[in-house]
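> forwarded from #structure-qc
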């Protein structure tokens, strides 16, 4: 067996099927010990909300952490985000200017303070109005020549982040740093903010059986042989996919 780079979303992907999570944690821990496989969590959560989940679900310590939808990368258990990555993101990012535009959109409700991060501004936006609000918002932000990206997930969460940031680009940063080929890298997800993980290159992809419509719709529009749609839900679907691709035997 050879090492691989394992990158997974947390909510409703790694977490959400307790029995399968225990089994997967054991499989991954053993693979890491024996072959040097690396484990990365890529989540929309801030450090505070990540730590809550880590404690609650007893998640194994990752080798790398991608938090706040890819805008923060933490390595080797460090408390401060990787400065190389922050430098890349800071070019052209203007949080105040973003806020001056979004305040004109009453449909946008600010998420809690813990989820507002140096390179991430987050709102709740209801599904029913999202289709009409998002294009207008995008247009207004473009007028200010803001180099940003809108990421809408789960029919409620809207993240505004620097253009060159998302889970996919953060994953690539780690993949290149650790020198894993894309064929030896597997990414797992269930919702909108995971599309970037699947879309950025040709890493192997596992879409869990409980995936949200926005991800399934994207997958149907851009099908690919290196992506596997699992039948089982959450960690159960991940285990299925790891065997399908031969990362586990
Ligand atoms: C997590 C974060 C939230 C974000 C969402 C989608 O729930 O806490 O801020 O909007 O992920 O990325
Ligand atoms: Mg998720």
């Amino acid at each position: 067996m050879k090492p691989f780079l394992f990158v997974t979303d947390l909510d409703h992907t790694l977490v959400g099927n307790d029995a399968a999570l225990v089994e997967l944690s054991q499989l991954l821990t053993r693979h890491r010990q024996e072959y040097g496989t690396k484990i990365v969590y890529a989540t929309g959560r801030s450090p505070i909300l990540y730590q809550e989940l880590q404690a609650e679900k007893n998640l194994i310590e990752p080798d790398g952490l991608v938090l706040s939808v890819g805008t923060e990368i933490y390595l080797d258990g460090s408390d401060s985000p990787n400065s190389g990555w922050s430098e890349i993101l800071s070019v052209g990012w203007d949080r105040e200017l973003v806020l001056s535009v979004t305040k004109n959109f009453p449909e946008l409700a600010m998420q809690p303070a813990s989820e507002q991060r140096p390179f991430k501004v987050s709102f709740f936006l209801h599904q029913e109005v999202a289709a009409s609000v998002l294009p207008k918002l995008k247009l207004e932000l473009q007028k200010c020549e803001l180099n940003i990206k809108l990421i809408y997930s789960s029919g409620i969460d809207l993240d505004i982040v620097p253009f060159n940031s998302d889970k996919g680009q953060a994953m690539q940063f780690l993949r290149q740093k650790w020198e894993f080929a894309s064929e030896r890298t597997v990414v797992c997800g269930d919702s909108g903010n995971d599309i970037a993980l699947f879309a950025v290159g040709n890493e192997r992809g596992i879409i869990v059986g409980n995936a949200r419509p926005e991800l399934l719709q994207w997958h149907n529009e851009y099908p690919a042989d290196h992506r596997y749609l699992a039948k089982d839900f959450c960690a159960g679907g991940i285990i299925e996919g790891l065997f399908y691709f031969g990362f586990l035997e």
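QC bot note: The pocket of alpha-D-glucopyranose (ligand 1) is lined by residues 44-45, 49, 69, 111, 115, 122, 153, 157, 159, 193 (CB under 6 Å). Residues 4 and 249 are 13 Å apart (CA to CA).
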